[in-house]
Amino acid sequence: MTHLQAGLSPETLEKAKVELKENPDTLHQDIQEVRDMIITRPDIGFLRTDDAFILRFLRARKFNHFEAFRLLAQYFEYRQQNLDMFKNLKATDPGIKQALKDGFPGVLSNLDRYGRKILVLFAANWDQSRYTFVDILRAILLSLEAMIEDPELQVNGFVLIIDWSNFTFKQASKLTPSMLRLAIEGLQDSFPARFGGIHFVNQPWYIHALYTVIRPFLKDKTRKRIFMHGNNLNSLHQLIHPEILPSELGGVLPPYDMGTWARTLLDHAYDEEPEYTPESYTLSVKDLERDLSPKTMKRSQSVVEPGVLKRPEKVKSEEENLQPLLSLD
Question: What is the pTM of this model?
Answer without folding.
Answer: 0.84
